[in-house]
Amino acid sequence: MATGGIVSASSSQGAGIGGGLADANGGAGGTVSITGGVVTATGGYFSAGIGGGANSASNGGEGGNVSISGGTVTANAKTGYNGTMAIGGGTNSSGTVAGNGTLTITGGYVTANRSISGGTSDSNTCVAATNGSNPVYKTTVDLSDTVGKYTALTGTSSIDGLIYGFNGVTTDGSGKIYLYLPEKSHTATLNGVTGYTGSTSTDDAGILSLAGLTATLQLGTPYLTGSAAAVSATPSLAGTIYYLAVKDGAADAYADADALKNASGVKSVSVTANTALTLTGMTALEGNYTVYAALISSSGSYKSAVMTGTLTAPATAPDSADVIIDCSAETLKAAAGLACSLQYFSTAEATTDGTAITTGGIPVASLLDSTTRGRCRGRLLSPGIPHQAAQSQPPSAQAPAHLPWALIIISSGIAFPAVRQPSLVRMC
């Protein structure tokens, strides 16, 4: 009996779960009950995935009595062997199947690589599943947009007035589950979502679907966390949220969700329906930013409008780490990637329209006026202390405390005085 957890069973010759290879008749499948968990069973040689074992010449083993009332169950016969069963009896080298036994399905997600609803495997008739009284057939439900991929159903689930077990049922990589139901029309509630409708047919092609889905995205008010923008979001469907923060961005910059998805620098995150999360990692240094976000469902069939929010990152002067002292070239440089600009001007100038200090740098000599340039030869040990004077003159003979220049940081149009002491301008 399997009631939960993960079970993966395979055999090179016997059944994955059930009877083994035998010299006389193959081993019988016995009684197998699965009520939950994730169960994968793969048979070997001429044996069933779940059920009877094989025999090389005589009869294979009987399928036994298999019941499934929950869980996610995958049963596979080994490919390349004639007449083998996913669930049922074992065969022999002539491809003759023994009795298939019984298969009762009253719950769970079940997939198999051979028919389990009375079809054929080569010339052999496969087991025909029932719910204990009526035949049941494969019915596909696409939950990719409401539940998502590889996700357990934890909400309320029911089908008509039937007793059907959903313990341990998990969607596959395409967001689907496969139920075995009687041939008729059905209405269902799955994972707490009502309104699924459809029908089951004897050809295993039945479908249940949910009409009237729409993709919406609730977006909170963007806020700063350090130098990044963040915002809370709640999607109505499972899928992917695409999001981006743009400085001075127009409200209608992206016409739809696809345009945002294909935007340069866009970020994305996989989401679960109706589950709030925080969108993070959007750089916002200083200035006015617009945050854009849109939801595209897992199936791609539903797309929300592009939602927007705004925030302002205050202008701040960077610290001395943003200024690079290049001793070998005797230059002062701005660090690459600054959000603000660095400029030099003489204190005698009544303006902030100075000389730009770029990543390429500005010679130290340019920072000094003509009366001091010859004396310190373009080198500064610390603000106002000429290089030679610092080495050869006593403290009383050193130059004045400040040279006639200053560094101004221009950030979003705001000037910050930045004569830094002394690490900003220390030269070799």
Question: Quick recap of the structure?
Answer:
The protein folds into three domains: 6-210, no CATH class; 217-313, Immunoglobulins (Immunoglobulin-like); 320-417, no CATH class. It is 4% helix and 38% strand.
Tell me what the structure shows.
- The protein has about 425 residues and is mainly β.
- The protein has 3 domains: about 5-210, no CATH class; about 215-315, Immunoglobulin-like (Sandwich), CATH 2.60.40; about 320-415, no CATH class.
- The protein is about 5% helix and about 40% strand.
- It contains 3 helices and 33 strands.
- The strands form 9 sheets. A 6-stranded mixed β-sheet has the order 12-14-15-16-11-13, with no helix packed on it. Strands 1, 3, 4, 6 and 8 form a 5-stranded parallel β-sheet that branches.
- The model is unreliable at about 350, about 370-405 and about 410-428 (pLDDT under 50).
Write the topology of this structure:
Elements (H helix, E strand, L loop, with lengths): L5 E5 L6 E2 L12 E4 L3 E5 L7 E2 L13 E12 L10 E2 L13 E11 L7 E2 L2 E2 L11 E6 L15 E2 L16 E6 L3 E6 L2 E7 L6 E5 L6 E3 L3 E3 L2 E8 L3 E9 L9 H5 L5 E5 L5 E7 L3 E11 L9 E7 L9 E4 L4 E4 L6 E5 L9 E2 L5 E2 L6 H7 L3 E3 L2 E2 H6 L13 E6 L2 E4 L11
Parallel strand pairs: 1-4, 2-5, 3-6, 4-6, 5-7, 6-8, 11-16
Antiparallel strand pairs: 9-10, 11-13, 12-14, 14-15, 15-16, 17-19, 18-19, 19-22, 20-21, 20-23, 23-24, 25-26, 26-29, 27-28, 27-32, 30-31, 32-33
